[in-house]
Amino acid sequence: MNPPFLSRITVFPIKALDPVRLTKAFIAPGGSLRWDRRFAMLDRTGKFVNGKRNPKVHLLRTEYDLERSRVRVRPHGGGEWQEFELSAGNPSLEEWLTGFFGEPISVAGNAEAGFPDDTTASGPTVVSRASLEEVATWFPGLDAERLRRRFRVNLEIDGVPAFWEDLQFTGRGRTRFRLGEVEFEGVNPCARCVVPTRDPETSDALPGFQGTFIERRAATLPAGVARERFDHFYRFTLNTCVVPGQGGTSLSVGDTLLEGGVAA
């Protein structure tokens, strides 16, 4: 039997917008994946423009050329692609986004750490492929690929059982694991918001999604998991921290998963 391995790497260069699938990624100085949530859209008050606060982000399509730091944008369903330099404060990009959202938009950048959702666990998010496939069975019409778009996870592990990521919570400490050159600490199960309830391309909500999800999560939590680590069961995937001092190290699809150890 082959050992568990990293089967997918996904980054989201502009927070809340479309993903890019990679075969290799580097760790940024702050512990995030380089290019993940490196840029963010801000409204006139300086708050993030994201799916939690503005469902219109689901109607915006993006494509990236990361080597050239370029982004192409257009509304979902049609229209001409418009290409811009992907940089903080680019006035042309900000003008286009302002027109799309109908309110002033600025673009901020952070190459050191990006703009993670969980600032206390700013490493990549992790899930097992088997978990996605199992959750897909709870919702007729959804499959693992559609769930990937809804849950927006960075790293996917193959060769481990469904809800492997929950097994990182068997006590109070943080478990450690390694993928390729990079050592991680599992911090907490990721609390979810309204975004997974919506179609990632149309923003249409799936009725009953959150209730069904909570019910099934509570029923399928693996034996031995510390249930007290779940204040509610609308949590899914693993938030991590990269062990300090690993900026510049890399991950590649195919890297073996090595488990073991508990951090203080």
Describe this structure in words.
It is a single chain. The protein folds into 2 domains: 5-10 and 25-32 and 115-263, M1 Pyruvate Kinase, Domain 3 (Beta Barrel); 39-109, no CATH class. A 4-stranded mixed β-sheet has the order 2-1-10-9. A 4-stranded antiparallel β-sheet has the order 13-12-11-15, with no helix packed on it. It has a 3-stranded antiparallel β-sheet with strand order 5-6-7, with helices on one face. A hairpin with a 2-residue loop joins strand 11 (174-179) and strand 12. By secondary structure, it is of the alpha+beta class. Helix 2 (129-136) packs across helix 3. It contains 4 helices and 15 strands. Helices cover 15% and strands 30% of the residues.
The overall pLDDT, averaged over residues, is 94
**Structural class of the secondary structure composition?**
alpha+beta
How many structural domains can be distinguished in the coordinates?
2
Main sheet summary = 4 strands, mixed
Number of strands: 15
Specify the overall morphology. globular
Would you state the CATH class of the largest domain? Mainly Beta
Low-confidence stretches: none
Reading side by side through the largest sheet, how are the strands ordered?
2-1-10-9
Helix content: 10-25%
Q: How much of the polypeptide forms β-strand, as a percent range?
A: 25-35%
